[in-house]
Structures are given as structure tokens and as C-alpha cells.
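Onboarding guide, step 5: your first structure request.
Type a short instruction followed by the sequence, for example:

Predict the 3D structure of this protein.
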Amino acid sequence: MNNSSIGMLSLAVASVYGTAYAQVGKQEKAQQLPNVIFIYADDLGFGDLECYGARNVETPNVNRLAENGIRFTNGYASSATSTPSRYSMLTGEYAWRRDDTGIAPGDAGMIIRPGQYTMADMFKSAGYSTAAFGKWHLGLGDETGKQDWNAPLPTALGDLGFDYSYIMAATADRVPCVFIENGQVANYDPSAPIYVSFEKNFPGEPTGKENPELLYNLKPSHGHDQSIVNGISRIGYMKGGGKALWKDENIADSIVGRAVQYLRQHRDERFFMYFATNDIHVPRFPHERFRGKNKMGLRGEAIMQFDWSVGQIMQALDELGLAENTLVILSSDNGPVVDDGYQDRAVELLNGHSPAGDLRGGKYSAFDGGTRVPLIVYWPAVIREPKVSDALVSQVDWLASLAALAGARIPKGNACDSSDYLQSLLGTDMVGRPWVIGHAANNTLSVRTKQWKYIEANDDSRTVLEETNTELGNSPMPQLYDMTVEGERENVAAKYPEKVFELEQILRQVRNSGNNTPQFTVQ
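The system replies with C-alpha cells like these:
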């Protein structure tokens, strides 16, 4: 690992900015550092954007970033589900190294502990103002199920390096259905105190299962039939909320509005913004202005709403004169899923659209559709010509790479799986990592190189997740695919046992060493 040597701007940065930049003083370097914005979509697939070949949907604002930046064809989230991929990206540590980083309930205690070093900590140490908006899904408070939602939470994002936060505790299909601002419920209504449980309902509170007549906005297709908020039933039980309860159709407007306000307030200082949208995750219920404008129905309209959110952020940067020196990284937490629990006709209305593009699998899967996601990097001050890069890149490396950019030191023992691939992110290296590691919902791991994909054997007998119709990539035997031929279509493990052994060794060493750097290279 290179973490211990990250203290001054790395050679990668010098090569991007040129020799002259490397020779200027520390103060001048600091003045040239960019603002940084992560635009992190939820369940956005490799084939869901127009610039990635999507059918039936227009995404002009995302297109603008791709047409003036770098569009990656081998960009990977570290996991095929939300909580672990976000954990890995923000901490630089693979989520599978811990046993408490699975898909979190809405009342999960903080999964990233205050003692851990985070992306926000890193930027804060480099003099940045830091903020988080939108979906969090990494727990709040000290203990699961013990939060008092009617008072300030004892631990929240302020303990993880964020100066300001306006977030959803988990995600839109889980209670509590309120925004949390700087560690306490936003717009709190004292006449309607909030109680949350993921074990049992509160007396007299309706549920989607027992009171379907109250579901005037969306009905569940599987699960998601517990407490009802805004005419939509959720996972988990909730009582109260009153004026603090969100309306799903206004979620995007709420987080965009707060984010734009933050940009205006911090226009004169350097900032890091984590802007995590919920649009494409269920329940899909976009604003009325998008209704009837896409033939794929609610899922297509949700993609339009995501693109609108991108446009609002970029418009604000333009108006404030900040776009030129703002590094924008747009990606997704995992691959796509179509029917993930609500009767929104998403499967019926695909009309030829393929959310994962030509990839196999999707959200939850060990196949590439689970973790290969859109990735676009935009920074006009440095990226002068648009590029399409097939470099292998992983979100787990964002922390170390951006620490190199900011000249920040990562404390020893933190971000153990994150390596500096800044040159790949900024397009001066078109190779990237020798391999990336993927993580499926059932904890199956995989290794992907430019040519090969290895999926370890596992004991999960399911080949398809029936509820979502997702191919899972499970097999009791090792799987090996030549990705240059037909993707993950023909298992050639028996034909190339030496390659299986080589990739198994990489996985074994990463597992056992607690870091991201095997002592041999892939041939």
C-alpha cells in the first residue's frame, strides 16, 4: 500500500498538472486544488444512461459530463448492494472484511464508527468544507434499534468528518421516512413523536399487508408491506412523524435544494460534497413534472429525475463560476434491478431497454452486472479533451487517489484496501488496476482482470433471485470467464486451471493479508 507515503502531492498529480505544478510552493498548490463532488446514484445500471447506449431514455445533463470528461467502461463498485459499496467507498476498506456491513435496516447503528477515517475526514484535514446530502444507509446513532428519533442523535455524520448533512437515515423503502439534518430530524413535529421498530408494529398503526386500501400511491409486489407513509408501504414499522414525514415525489427537490443552497453558501471556500440520490431505488415515485414523459413509466421517469438533479447541480456550479475547477465524479452504488418490491410496471414497460446493458446479472449478483457501473469523471481545468477509458478502476480506491490529489495523509491502519489510482481517474493512465474484486449480496467474491473474471465456488443453491429475476452467479464449482469473447457466458474453468489457480491466489492473499496488494502480478 502507498498510504504511508501520501503526505505531499504524489507523482501522479505532478504528471497530471505538469512539471511546473510540481515545482510551485505549497500555498500555490493548495490554491489550485479543486472542489470535489460525488454524484452517487442508487441502482443505476451500466446500460441505464444515454451515453452508455441506453434505449428509451434521454439523459442530457449526464451526457454533458461524459462529452466533456472521461467515461469509463470498466468502472466498478466494490459490492453489488448499497450499504457495503458505500462503506467501502467512504472508508477505503472492503465491507466483506466485517460481518456487520450487509444491507442495513433503517434503525441500524452507525456502521462506520467514529474512530474510522473516512473520505470526509480526509478532505476536512486538507482544509475542505464537507457535506453529505441524500441517501445514507450506513446507520445512525450508537446502537441498532436504540435511537431516540425525538432528540439529537449521540453519533451522526458530524462524527465522521461531515460539517453539514441533510440525509435519509437509510433509503426510501425503509422507515424512518424523515430527513436527518446534522444529527436530528429535520422539521421535527413535537405533536407527532417518532417511534421506529423493525421487530413489531405499534398498536393501531396500519400496514400495507393488512390495509391495502390505504396504498393510494404504490402497492408492493413482494415484501415492503409494513408501515404506510405517503400511500406507500415500507420495510419496518413507524409511528408519528407528522410534518417531518417526506413525500416521495419531493425527495429529489429536497436534497437538490439543500445541496444548491450549500454551494451558494460555500462558494468562496473549497468543498467536498457527497450527493447521493434515491431516484432509481424503489419506491420509484418521481415528481409530477416527470410523469408521462417516458414510455418506461416510473423507472424511466426516475432516471429522468436523476438527470435533472445532475443538471441542477451543474447549473449552480456554472452560475457561481465554480464549474471549471470542480472535480465531479458520477457513479452508482451497484447494478440495476427492475422489480425490487413494488408494482410499478417496470418490467412490463422496459420496451427493449436493458438496464445492465450487455452485462449478465444485476444488483445482488456476482456477475458483472452487479458491480460494473457507470463512471464519469469531469474536471474542465484538467480534463481538456473527452475520453473513453477502459482502465480497470474501483471505488475502493477513491479515498487514496483523492488523498494524493489533496496532499492529505491517511492514518496508519485506515483505508487498508485503497490504493492511489489518481492517474487512471484523470485519464493519464488508461490501464488502471491489474484486477478488481467484486462482492455479491451473499458474500461471494470475484476477481476481474482485463481479460478474465473468476467467481469463487459457493454453497448457495439459488441460480436466480426469484423475487427480482436476477441471475446470481452462484455455483458449487469455480467459474472462469473470458471477458473478451462473450462476457460471462461460457465457464472455461476446466479449460484453464492455471488461470483459475492464479486468480484464486490473488483472492486468497487479499483475504488473508488485510490489504489490496498481492505480491505478484497478473499475466
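Each response can be followed by summary notes, for example: The two ends are 21 Å apart (CA to CA).
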